[in-house]
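Worked example (supplementary).
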Amino acid sequence: MVRYLLFRLMRLLFALWLTASGVFLLSGSLPTDIILQPLSVGEISATASSLQQQRLAEQRFRHRLGLDIPLFYFSLPTATTHQQWQWHGRHNQYHRWVQQLLHGNLGRSYRDGQSVTTLLAAALTYTLPLTTLAATLSVLLALWLATRLAIHQQIRLPALRLLYALDALPLFVLALLLLLLFANPDMLPWFPAYGLGEESELVNAPMLERIGTLLYHLVLPLISLTLVNLPHLVVQLDAALQNERLTAYAATARAKGAPEKQVVQHHTLRNALLPSLSQLTDLLPALVAGAVVVEVIFALPGVGRLLAEAAATHDYPVILGGVLLTAVVRLLAQFLTDSLYLVADPRIRLRT
Amino acid sequence: MSVSLYFADWRRRVAIGWLCLLLVSAVAAPWLPLPFAPDQLDLSATLQPPGTAGHWLGTDPYGRDVLALLLFGARTALRLSLPAAVLTTILGTLLGATAGFYRNSPLPIDSIVMGLMAVISSIPRLILVLALAAVQPPSINTLLVLLLCTYWIGPARLVRAEMLRTREVPFIEAARATGIPAYRILLRHALPNTWQPALAVFPLSVASLIALETTLSFLGVGLPPEIASWGRLLAAFSIDPSAWWLLLYPAAVLFSTSLALRQLSK
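After joint prediction of all chains, the assembly is encoded as:
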């Protein structure tokens, strides 16, 4: 078992390294002018009057960001610079980046110079409650709904059709529709459309009130994240329950006079949960990806919005940090699922 | 299943009708007698509700006609998702079939393909494409390549599983026994029996690609801003939530297209 988990971990770390390196090296192919443009304009034009001074200031700036050294260990022959393969040794951007990464340093944002770890940590305080709440809500709701559908077979088909239609709506369209319906002064102004409430009002408020305001602002984002993940979960669970429904032990339970509710809740649900557990591995990363869309729409200062803004402004230290964070979430989800399997199915414990 | 049985369901006929209508109007959009061009700015008539001054579906914050933007947005969505879906299906089928077929051979083809699939699926697709698109200059062809790199794993996984079943079937064994070279068995005997699952999910991958394209455009990543897209219309709505026509029309088109595509793969 330990070997299996270690193998999983190794593969995931390899995946992490490959993805991050891919993003890093691809980012090197982007002309540096695009990155420099928004941030260097102020600094460079403030200090330089002549063209030569401007050139010098630009060079200093590139040196500070570490953009003046080669990107990788070697460079391919190109027509413009040189004709043959060139070996640069350890003095390159990639080596420096990996070294920093292994020391836990993700670099600084190109936009405001803040360290990426600080930015991500601050954003996580909003994204973490959002995603964990959404995960709990969707799992509980899916369990309840699937059990209901198994007990009341007559509402099963219409309900599944409704879920099927719901599944066809992309998350951002669903969130925008909720925004139009429930956060609109012309329709139903029940919930706030943006942000997390006034910061100044909340500083002195008691803890309970602060949590209450936070939850009130998170209602619509939570509903959209839950609704979008619900169809997959319910359909999987429902298929598993349908399989268990016709088994001999379920028939035995019915024959001894147990009502259908008890048959489902005490007998078939436990066995149906097992094949549905693997859904959890995909649920958490899907919620993180969903958080990107939802946080942009509802203007929440979380990781997803950070990532989307970084993507729109080519701020790739932040993008790389976000990608690494997502992969870590995936890793945690994988471990969670594997250990839940161990808890739920004694056969796996015995096998290895 | 025979062709006539496939068309027996009325829902499927409606779905095919809608998709044909969308395809024809998207292809013919530049030649349709529209009252306004999609790139025609009119700063005196911004955010007009539907039905005013010849704008049947209203205008966006730059005074562009929503109907024209919808039609040209359909053009963008199909221009990106159809080639991407076709290419990913072909690529995924070939890679999945090869991986499954050479599973026990000394060449590590299967473990390489499986490893690649594990790498690509370890990061959510939206975040992966978002990160990769953000470090490239925005263009429709770059996005196509990125989608190609990330979407082939879906058909590949299905075809590989199917191939693992097919390679044990007696007629493959018979082909082996007669001494036909392995690559020929793969191409002529095994592959024609394994590509159906990839075809079955083809409409689903088109739907998923359209959803991803609109999401990326909504976030302002991937496509250059001058290209009309449904996602940009919805982004305009999120800036001004009182302009309901910027949400409802693109959402309805997106929803019905997605539903129709799902109906096809049932």
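Two points are worth noting when inspecting this output. The two ends of chain B are 12 Å apart (CA to CA). The mean pLDDT of chain B is 84.
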